[in-house]
Amino acid sequence: MNSIAIVGAGLGGLACARVLQLHGVDVTVFEQEASAAARPQGGTLDMHADTGQVALRTARLHDEFRALSRPEGQQMRALDPRTADVVMDELPAEGDEFRPEIDRGQLRGLLLDALSPGTVRWGRPITAAAPGSLTFGDGSTADFELVVGADGAWSRVRRTLTGVRPEYSGVTFVEFGLDDADRRHPELAALAGQGTMVTKVDGRALFAQRTSSGHIRCYAVFYAPEDWATGLDFADTEAVRANLLTRFAGWHPDVLRLLRDQDGAFTHRPLHVLPVPHAWTHTPGVTLLGDAAHLMPPLGVGANLALLDGTELATALATASSVDEAVRAYETGMLPRSIETAKACATGLDDLLSDDFRSAAA
């Protein structure tokens, strides 16, 4: 029998695998995507000193993280959507590294590079899970001492423990971007600053975040019914742009240039969350971490908690007298923490679209 199986090569699963290997524990990560480069890894993450950075220290990767991170990315700017005037511009103090930014792809690459070759089995989707067992897309099965569901929002492993599924939050995100912004879109790059810029009013918001490559990743965020995009073809960039410009009508032209000058495609990301509280009855042979355990609104805590979950679970597995004792100890700490954080995030989702600019920086 193999030792530990982690389903999903996201941040939490990789952090768990890294710490297990530091302790000499046999672990395999199964990932349905064909390779690490199968899809873009998203924008930038703020790593909190009391959660994500704690996990990176446990993984002995904090120095490497600091070399890639951007403390200047903690800048938070807010614009009046009707005038484009800057109404808030908070710069990090010199030496402030409480929430430095790092590109998600860079952080994932850092974790992948720290694993032994062959740890991640790419192109290995699972079709079913049971305590201590996985069924793969090719029909084969394998048994393990523990199956860890790190497989995100629509986790298959979660079904082993709970029938709960994510629910639509009533808020939708449309993602888009500006390539090589300093050279091609200098005025918009100046608006965005070095970190995050927000402009919002009446339940609508535009966010812009700078990444390490000079790309600016943007999000149009608004309340909408789940079927709001029925009939809208997201492959038709001009149709999506026209729809969004109508939704944000009356905003200052300089702000709307984020939409007008956008490069590439728009991506629809309706926001789903797990109900609060979300917990399960302890079951030997299986557990969850990250979004599989506690899918929350994207308010700057998800990646941090996933990393902390992964490293705490791995540490427990490496030090407890049995696998089941380790999982019980992990769940005893993780579940109350995630429930309290999820409660705060549920309230914070409305704050995200409120007219209070400071709530966007939480």
Automatic annotation (TrEMBL):
Its cofactor is FAD. The keyword ATP-binding does not apply. Its main location: cytoplasm. FAD binds at residues 46, 104, 291. It comes from the Bacteria. This is Flavin-dependent monooxygenase. The keyword NADP applies. InterPro entries: FAD-bd (IPR002938), FAD/NAD-bd_sf (IPR036188), TetX_monooxygenase (IPR043683). Belongs to the aromatic-ring hydroxylase family. TetX subfamily. Pfam families: FAD_binding_3. An FAD-requiring monooxygenase active on some tetracycline antibiotic derivatives, which leads to their inactivation. Hydroxylates carbon 11a of tetracycline and some analogs. It comes from Amycolatopsis iheyensis. Residues 4-78, 141-322 form the FAD-binding domain. Monomer. It catalyses: a tetracycline + NADPH + O2 + H(+) = an 11a-hydroxytetracycline + NADP(+) + H2O. Keywords: Cytoplasm, FAD, Flavoprotein, Monooxygenase, NADP, Nucleotide-binding, Oxidoreductase.
